[in-house]
UniProtKB/TrEMBL annotation, chain A:
Cofactor(s) needed: FAD
SUPFAM superfamilies xrefs: FAD-binding/transporter-associated domain-like, FAD-linked oxidases, C-terminal domain
Molecular function GO labels: FAD binding; oxidoreductase activity
Domain FAD-binding PCMH-type: 40-218
Classification via PANTHER family: GLYCOLATE OXIDASE SUBUNIT GLCD
InterPro entries: FAD-bd_oxidored_4_C, FAD-bd_PCMH, FAD-bd_PCMH-like_sf, FAD-bd_PCMH_sub2, FAD-linked_Oxase-like_C, FAD-linked_OxidoTrans_Type4, Oxid_FAD_bind_N, Vanillyl_alc_oxidase_C-sub2
One Pfam entry name: FAD_binding_4
The organism's place on the tree of life at top rank: Bacteria
Residues forming coiled coils: none
Protein known as: Glycolate oxidase
Keywords of the record: FAD, Flavoprotein, Oxidoreductase
UniProtKB/TrEMBL annotation, chain B:
Keywords, sorted A to Z: FAD, Flavoprotein, Oxidoreductase
GO molecular function terms attached to this record: FAD binding; oxidoreductase activity
InterPro entries documented for this protein: FAD-bd_oxidored_4_C, FAD-bd_PCMH, FAD-bd_PCMH-like_sf, FAD-bd_PCMH_sub1, FAD-bd_PCMH_sub2, FAD-linked_Oxase-like_C, FAD-linked_OxidoTrans_Type4, Oxid_FAD_bind_N
Phylogenetic lineage: Bacteria, Bacillati, Bacillota, Bacilli, Lactobacillales
Organism: Loigolactobacillus rennini DSM 20253
Listed name of the protein: Glycolate oxidase
Keyword Flavoprotein belongs to the record: yes
Domain of life: Bacteria
FAD-binding PCMH-type domain mapped to chain residues: 42-220
Gene3D superfamilies, per database record: 3.30.465.10, 3.30.70.2190, 3.30.70.2740, Uridine Diphospho-n-acetylenolpyruvylglucosamine Reductase, domain 2, Vanillyl-alcohol Oxidase, Chain A, domain 4
Tagged with keyword Flavoprotein: yes
Cofactor: FAD
Length: 463, 467
């Protein structure tokens, strides 16, 4: 960016954003240069913390006029570098727009600003008897970030993903126009579905500045089952039988012994009932204890019929919290077990999970590299972490590329997709490119152009 | 936009591509039905009809049309209510109703792969045989699945299960250039790039022609029970709806109806409804796996209705009663149609909390504009159907009063935070009203998207919005 453009732009910004919310040069925090994966770092030239839709709109107009690239940042917990300003330019930090604006108990909606944290939304709704079901592991992410990555999480089988809970969006376009998409109504056949275009678009099509979420009545009772199996195949093969039973668990998570070991040394705790090869962790929720008991007893029996070694019922809250917080810490535990790692967030048809996991084991052996993982077995979304351990930088890069290439190729062959819930960002761009046919890829590119003719919004991402 | 005039040579060329005389209809062979849909307000015949038998057929014809600049319209069963499948610019009509095979039931992934022309009732029967269930339940069971997807049809189970959009996992689509693409997959989650699948759903055949769909299924609930709840006034009935939606066990359906529509249906079917003594009714439906479960679900809701002033609660505890109530409900549209000379409809959707205001507006505008209006609707999801009846009005007078009424109602809906269409689409008939109620910014983006998919504007031109 040349100095005059820089000056002009800065002048324009100072007219919109007060100095205490406008940062340049060494006022820019290092945090703005990376997200949670930490393998990429790049700082913006300017950063602003807008407080209103109007401010965002005016800033976008200035950026568009001066042809400055803009990257939106929520809490920066992303795992694919989506919020990193890799081309410099302006960083739009929305964490200050974090108000919970309206709970509408007639329409069962909650209207919030994009910077509201998932944990605040949970707290706000649940203390009032309501419930926002999507439950990705990272609770300090912003709702704007969750929507932009279409985050999934631990309750997707029964309740769906973030996309399913977005009723309305206010979006500032790349040109600085304000759009209202969707609303408080629950059905819509009035023209193209622009709302669903924005969801999952990782800040490349527009800036989300207000959200109307769908909420439901809070389930009063939650129970979990921990079900050990002699091997991963039996565990995973039980899943379709569970989902066909007519009883839908809230979660069906899968993990193997190795991950438990990492967790034990990371947390210095003992995993309850360890010593088995593979596990399913199920949870059930509802309004009445008796109903849930009925449900999980049937499922427990079904698991035993399909090769489970045992079934542990976790009916007190403490036990449940212990196991689920262990499950929540698996990512951290694996990270702690190695020097550096990178992840795949592949999603395959449920019926192909066994093949995929088998393939991962095989690649780990042939490449002599650790690839521990776990996954949302109920929805075919698997997280595997390729660990560097003691490899030197060059060997590591070679191996990582080779392993990633192989895993994404296998997933494609099995009818899968590159990302189930973390998005593409910058880290998974090459793999998205490889997985999509030319026509589809071009269609996405052209839509990007329609929304953002000057390619200023998160220009380096997804495509 | 100037299109190529369709000639005998084009017909011969298309016949060559399809290579089957019975599947390419030209001139006198084109039946009159191909010129309109269920409501008949929009009429225009195609130059040629192709009864496609495969994706390759559709792709070949589309490629030819693209190269020669000939308009193409896809037609399912023609049950649409907004003229969406009517070939306004003539040209080629691709009838996909013969692509009617169920291709695969995948019991591990709980999906059903179908050709686009499979009828909703076929899917219903087929899944029921396997104890599975495709929840979307629009009234017209002889519509095609592609028509349902193209209009994002809603129907009578949306309160609990959602609409057609929520049950589509993957689509194979022939683009206006003739290229074949697949959007989505058998996967249940996806954060891999822009959501093109959802862009196709509800796009009324103006972005691409659906040639295959993978649908999401659920295990079939084993028990279904309905409650018919008479209320002294419509207002009381509607006021009860948010309370019901807030209750612990959400019904699959919450429909409202008034006495006059029930009387029409009784006459139309020649059969009595279980009750027709009250002014207004809510019809609720619950499902579950056991009788106890369903009973536990509806008991508190029944009590709640009584507390809110319901006159009584009739429970459809036999299959026969259950069928007769829903059969009547499904016949409302036909019954109203039978009660007058001509009609057009509104399919507006408003936030649930505004339903009362909206339904109170119908009699008001009816009186003011001098046009008979009947309404019923999906109260649970704020989607209201109102029918403006011609009766003895002259054609000109009917059009005049109807247009004015529509303008007023859509404006009202817009002011209440609602939209033109909840489930029937925009098509040709509602284009004007979409334009009047939609932000220019949104409309401009829609136009831009249309243009990138269909640069020559040959696929179903003149629908949804003007390019
Ligand atoms: C420990 C851990 C566990 C996790 N577990 C899960 C899980 O189980 N399931 C799951 O799905 N995900 C999981 N995630 C990923 C998590 O959901 C994402 O990191 C989160 O959604 C990003 O939110 P954020 O506010 O941090 O966004 P950022 O990282 O700041 O941004 C993410 C992307 O969204 C864009 N963006 C942010 N706000 C807006 C806005 N208002 N308008 C437009 N674009 C915007 C950014 O430009 C960027 O492309 C996990 C992450 C961690 C670190
Ligand atoms: C009595 C009655 C009751 C109804 N009740 C309901 C209800 O409760 N809820 C509800 O939502 N709807 C309802 N409807 C509307 C109904 O859902 C639609 O008519 C139906 O979805 C259209 O399907 P079709 O096969 O007849 O499509 P058509 O009428 O043939 O076409 C409709 C649209 O879909 C497009 N299309 C068709 N096939 C394809 C394809 N393969 N690819 C791309 N585009 C295609 C056409 O171009 C057109 O734009 C009702 C209709 C009637 C007549």
């Amino acid at each position: 960016m040349d100095e005059t453009t820089k000056e002009n732009f800065l002048k324009a910004l100072t007219k919109v954003i007060p100095p205490d919310r406008l940062y340049t040069e060494d006022e820019i925090s290092d945090d703005y240069g990376h997200d949670e994966i930490n393998t990429i770092f790049h700082l913006p030239e300017f950063a602003v913390k807008p407080m209103t839709t109007k401010e965002v709109a005016t800033v976008m107009q200035c950026a568009n006029e001066n042809n400055i690239s803009v990257v939106v940042r929520g809490a920066g917990t992303g795992l694919v570098g989506g919020a990193i300003p890799t081309t410099g330019g302006l960083l739009l930090d929305l964490s200050g727009m974090n108000e919970i604006k309206q709970l509408d108990t007639d329409n069962l909606t909650l209207t919030v600003e994009p910077g509201a944290l998932l944990t605040d939304i949970k707290q706000y709704t649940e203390t009032r008897g309501f419930f926002y079901p999507p439950d990705p592991g990272e609770k300090t992410a912003t709702i704007g970030g969750n929507i932009s990555t279409n985050a999934g999480g631990m309750r997707a089988i029964k309740y769906g993903v973030t996309r399913d809970y977005v009723r309305g969006l206010t979006v500032v376009t790349a040109l600085g126009n304000v759009m209202h998409l969707g609303g408080k109504f629950v059905k819509n056949s009035s023209g193209f579905d622009l709302k669903d275009m924005i969801i999952g678009s990782e800040g490349t099509l527009g800036v989300i500045t207000e959200i109307t979420l769908k909420i439901i009545i809070k389930p009063e009772v939650t129970m979990s089952l921990l079900v050990p199996f002699p091997n991963f195949k039996d565990a995973i093969k039980a899943v379709p039988n569970i989902l066909r039973s007519g009883i839908t668990p809230t979660a069906v998570e899968f993990f193997e012994q190795n991950v438990i070991k990492y967790w034990e040394s990371f947390s210095q705790k003992i995993f309850p009932e360890d010593g088995h090869q593979a596990y399913l962790l199920l949870s059930f929720d509802g309004q009445k204890e008796a109903q849930i008991e009925d449900d999980y007893e049937k499922i427990a029996e079904l698991c035993l019929e399909h090769g489970a070694e045992d079934v542990y019922v976790l009916d007190d809250v403490k036990q449940q919290e212990e196991i689920w917080s262990a499950r929540g810490a698996f990512l951290e535990a694996i990270k702690d077990s190695t020097t550096e790692m990178d992840e795949v967030d592949i999603v395959v048809p449920r019926s192909e999970i066994v093949s995929f996991v088998q393939y991962v084991h095989q690649i780990a052996t042939t490449e002599n590299i650790r690839i521990p993982g776990f996954g949302h077995a109920g929805d075919g979304n698997l997280h595997f972490y390729v660990c560097r351990d003691d490899y030197d930088q060059k060997t590591w890069q070679e191996k990582l590329t080779k392993v990633f290439d192989a895993l994404y190729q296998e997933s494609k062959t099995l009818g899968g997709q590159v990302s189930g819930e973390h998005g593409i960002g910058i880290a998974k761009k090459v793999y998205l490119r490889k997985s999509l046919d030319e026509v589809t890829y071009t269609a996405m590119k052209k839509i990007k152009q329609v929304f953002d003719p000057n390619n200023i919004l998160n220009p380096d991402k997804i495509l | 936009m100037a299109y190529k005039t369709f000639t005998k040579e084009d017909y011969t060329a298309i016949l060559d591509l399809i290579n089957d005389n019975d599947r390419v209809l030209y001139q006198d062979a084109i039946q009159e039905e191909y010129g309109h849909d269920e409501l008949g307000g929009t009429e225009s015949l195609p130059d040629v009809v192709v009864l496609a038998a495969s994706t390759a057929d559709v792709s070949k014809v589309m490629t030819y049309a693209y190269e020669n600049n000939i308009p193409v319209t896809a037609r399912g069963a023609g049950t649409g209510l907004v003229g969406a499948c009517v070939p306004i610019e003539h040209g080629i009509l691709i009838d996909i109703s013969k692509m009617d095979q169920i291709l695969e039931l995948d019991e591990d992934n709980l999906t059903l792969t179908v050709q686009p022309g499979v009828l909703l009732m076929t899917i219903g029967d087929y899944t029921a045989e396997h104890d599975l269930f495709f929840p979307p339940d629009p009234g017209e069971k002889s519509a095609t699945i592609a028509g349902n997807i193209a209009t994002n049809a809603g129907g009578m189970r949306a309160v609990k299960y959602g609409v057609t959009r929520d049950f589509v996992r993957e689509l194979e689509v022939v683009l206006p250039t003739g290229k074949v693409v697949t959007f989505g997959g058998k996967v249940v989650k996806n954060s891999s790039g822009l959501d093109l699948k959802d862009l196709i759903i509800g796009s009324e055949g103006i972005l691409g022609i659906i040639t295959k769909a993978v649908l999401k299924l659920l295990p079939a609930p084993k028990k279904v029970i309905s409650l018919l709840v008479p209320f002294p006034t419509l207002r009381q009935a509607i006021d009860t709806v948010p309370e019901i939606v807030r209750s612990e066990n959400v019904p699959i359906a919450i429909e409202f109806m008034e006495q006059d529509v029930i009387l029409d249906a009784e006459e139309y079917l020649g059969k009595k409804f279980p009750d027709h003594s009250a002014d207004a009714y809510l019809l609720l439906r619950f499902d579950g796996n056991t009788d106890e479960e369903v009973e536990k679900a509806y008991q508190p809701v029944a009590d709640l209705c009584l507390k809110q002033g319901a006159v009584d609660v009739f429970i459809s505890d036999t299959q026969e009663r259950e069928d007769s109530i829903w059969k009547a409900r499904s016949a409302f549209l036909e019954a109203i149609k039978g009660s007058t000379t001509d009609m057009d409809e509104l399919d507006t959707v408003v936030p649930r909390s505004k339903v009362n205001e909206m339904v109170a507006y119908f009699p008001e505008v009816s009186k003011e504009q001098g046009i008979r209006i009947k309404s019923f609707g999906h109260a649970g999801d704020g989607n209201l159907h109102a029918y403006m009846l011609k009766d003895d009005l002259s054609e000109a007078e009917f059009q005049k009063r109807m247009t004015k009424t529509m303008e007023l109602v859509y404006e009202k809906a817009h002011n209440l935070g609602g939209l033109v269409s909840g489930e029937h689409g925009i098509g040709y008939a509602k284009k004007r009203y979409l334009k009047e109620t939609m932000d220019p910014v949104n409309l401009e983006l829609m136009r831009g998207i249309k243009k990138t998919f269909d640069p020559k504007n040959i696929l179903n031109p003149n629908k949804v919005f003007d390019v």
